[in-house]
Amino acid sequence: MSSRTYAITGSASGLGAETRRLLLQQGHRVIGIDLRDAEVCVDLADAADRRRAIDRVEELSAGRVNAVIACAGISGGTGRPEPIVRVNYFGTIDILEGLRPLLARSSEPRAVAVTSVATLTTGSDDPVVRACLDGDEERAVAAAVTADHNLGTAAYAASKRALSIWTRRRAPAADWAGAGIALNAVGPGLIATPMTEYLLAPERRAQTEADVPMPFGGVGEPRHVASLLAWLTSIDNGRVTGQVIFVDGGYDVLHRGEDIW
Ligand SMILES: NC(=O)c1ccc[n+]([C@@H]2O[C@H](COP(=O)([O-])OP(=O)(O)OC[C@H]3O[C@@H](n4cnc5c(N)ncnc54)[C@H](O)[C@@H]3O)[C@@H](O)[C@H]2O)c1
After folding, report:
1. The overall pTM is greater than 0.90
2. Which residues partner with 247 through β-bridges?
């Protein structure tokens, strides 16, 4: 297999770290982007830092990356709607759009955004979702901090729903599919990572598993997601684009039944 260059956000922990490990093992080059322990250390909540990250990846890669995997995210359990919206939606799409020209210059370019099954738990008419899709970061943050219930969880679901919709809107466009770049989203169910440690603590695990039933195998491991991220961004992915693929042990099909969307 020939070596490709990958940029991965959230590469220091959990799903991003496991994907990094897998790709390095396959002989690829990885440029990690994270708050710490990465080739590019930046805060993706901050728009100027996102620009710095794009410029730094351009320098490190000599202007060409074959794939971008956007994993960085903040849990709803933090209860902090502002960074959730800024990182999970705007930090993700700014990095994907900012690195798109580097993808377009490379061979067999692919990109993936990591969303969540939380996509399924809110509606497209949510004011945070609408502000995200309008590209209005400050309105999205204002709507998220003034929601009247369960701020962190609501902001998380809205940020991930907007990201899933954004992926489906952008994937067929001239500057993505038309430029030969596959763009997909992967939505994990419950995966054991530092993000979900508090949900899977012994005293809470039974309730968590009841809330997010995963009949095929139960709570997943990071490798279950990493292998799909690696495949979607590999040259073997010849035609899959614009999909939101849930890695959720069957949660989605229980939740939505026969509805495809
Ligand atoms: N673990 C799960 O069950 C699960 C389920 C659904 C979706 N997800 C999504 O998968 C992705 C990865 O989650 P994880 O479980 O690996 O979590 P994690 O907490 O282990 O890793 C997240 C990474 O994102 C980085 N990050 C957070 N804020 C950042 C910022 N402001 N700037 C730069 N980097 C930042 C963190 O430093 C960390 O390395 C997230 O987008 C998350 O929402 C996870």
Report:
1. yes
2. 188
